[in-house]
Amino acid sequence: MEEVSTKPSGYKEYVAGLLAGVATVIVGHPFDTVKVKLQKHSTEVEGIKYRNGLHCTVRILATERVRRLYKGATSSFIGVAFESSLVFGIYSHTKNGPQPQVIIPSAAFGGAIISFVLCPSELVKHACNKAELLQCRMQVQGADLIVTGMFPGGSTALLRESVGNAVFFSLNTDSSDPHNLTDVGIGILTGGLGGVAFWSAVLPLDVAKTVIQTAPDKSCQRNPFQIYRRTGVRGCYAGLGPTIVRAFPANAAAIVTWKLAMKLLGIKNE
Fold it and tell me: Where are the transmembrane segments (predicted)?
C-alpha cells in the first residue's frame, strides 16, 4: 500500500492548489459571465432584455454557444490558478494539525499573503472596466500609480482574505477520501457551504474595497466603516445573490479537486 506523507513536500501542495483554482474557473466562470451580462443589460439593449439568470444563460447558449460562457476565461485561469496555488499551498505548509487554533491562523496567513496579489490585480480589472477612471488617475497621480497607487484598499483586501479564508478552511478540515462517493458528497457540501460562508462574512469588505478602488481621486473616503455608515446594511451586501449562486458550485469544485489532488500526490490532508 502506498505510504501517504503528512509532511509538506515543498511543491505538491501548491500543485494541488493550482488544480483547485482551475476547477474553480471551469465551474465558476460561466456564472461570472451571466452576472456581467445581467448587470450590463439591465435595460433593453439591441432588442434584448434578460429577465433573469436562467433566461440570460439560455440566450447565450442559443446565440453564441458554450464558448461565450467562457469568454475571457484565459486570464482567469492564470490568475485564479496562481492565487489558489498560493493560498492552498501556504495553508498546507503552515497548518500542523486539525485544531481550530492551528487552522484559523494558517488560513488567515495564506489569505493575507494573496491579498498583495489580489489588490493590484482587482484594481487593474476595475480600471479596465472603467477606462476613464484609469485615465483620470494617471493624470492626477502620474508615475506614483505604479508604486503606491496600485494598492488602494489594500488593508481592506487583506482583512477580507484573512477573515474569509479562516472561515472557509474552518469548514473544510476533514480528511475524507475523495474516491468514496459519500465523502465526495461531503466535500461538495462543505466546500459549497464554505464558499457561501466566506462571502457572507466578508462581502461588506469586498464592497468597501470596490468603492475605494473605483474612487476617482485620493480624497474619497477610504474607511470601510464610514462606507457602511453611508450606504447601510443593504449597500454593504450589494451583489450578494449572484455572489452566493456562484460561490457554492465553484468552491465545492475547488475543495473536491484539492482533496483528490492531495490524495493522488500522496499527501495526507490532516
Answer: 14-31, 69-91, 103-124
